[in-house]
Amino acid sequence: MPRLAFIIVDVQHDFLPGGALPVPEGDQVIPVINRLQPQYELVVATQDWHPPAHGSFASAHPGRQPGEVIQLNGLPQVLWPDHCVQGSYGAELARGLDTTRIARVFQKGTDPAVDSYSGFFDNGRRHDTGLADFLRQQGVQEVHVAGLATDYCVKYTALDAARLGFKTRVLLPACRGVNLHPGDVERAVAEMRAAGVDIMPA
Question: Is 184 exposed, middle or buried (0-12, 13-18, 19+ CB in 10 A)?
Fold first, then answer.
């Protein structure tokens, strides 16, 4: 049984240059992730999969702009442009990504009332995606995490993996960040390191 799994986080068209919510240099993670995949017995992926008018979209809140922070069902919520809408081209896994080794894709952000950065839980930890149970069923004890974006979905996925008892490593050469505020990526890396996540430097 595989003891080590590779989690590919949100490598989707909308997060690439030219997409609805582009991560700077986001496309550069794809060849790195493709080269890494053969090293792992088990590869899984997460996929942002929002219904239209999701509560995290600025467009769902008249007068609000992307980047503003509101309260959404008791949680602070950064507002984003509409992105990764279910069934859209932007929500698809990137065309250049090798998906042949991906055993299963875990969709997140499906509840319109709460956002979901982590591949394991929504932001309120009210809903479980099933990723942790799947990894445990496969005998996984350690996970390596890569993808988009370092300071949001990669960070929260790694933090949850560590909290759930998986030995966790983030592969920075295969990640890129949003950096909504200068220094966000550096702060995210420091937060992950402080939580016991091993960091492979870029």
Answer: middle
155 is an active site residue = no
| Catalytic status, residue 98 | no
Domains in the chain, please, with CATH?
Answer: 4-52+83-200 (3.40.50.850)
List 10, 115, 122, 160, catalytic entry: 10
Q: Where are the alpha helices (DSSP H) in the chain?
A: 29-36, 131-137, 155-163, 184-194
> How many angstroms separate the CA atoms of 29 and 147, rounded?
7
Q: Quick check: helix, strand or coil at residue 179? A: coil
Q: In tens digits, what is the pLDDT along the chain, a chain of 202 residues?
A: 769 999 999 999 999 999 999 999 999 999 999 999 999 999 999 999 999 999 999 999 999 999 999 999 999 999 999 999 999 999 999 999 999 999 999 999 999 999 999 999 999 999 999 999 999 999 999 999 999 999 999 999 999 999 999 999 999 999 999 999 999 999 999 999 999 999 999 7
Whether pTM > 0.85 for this model: the answer is yes
Q: Return the H-helix or E-strand segment holding 200.
A: strand 198-200
Catalytic residue among 153, 155, 160, 175: 153
The yes-or-no answer on residue 175 being catalytic is: no
Which among 27, 108, 115, 122 is annotated as catalytic? 108
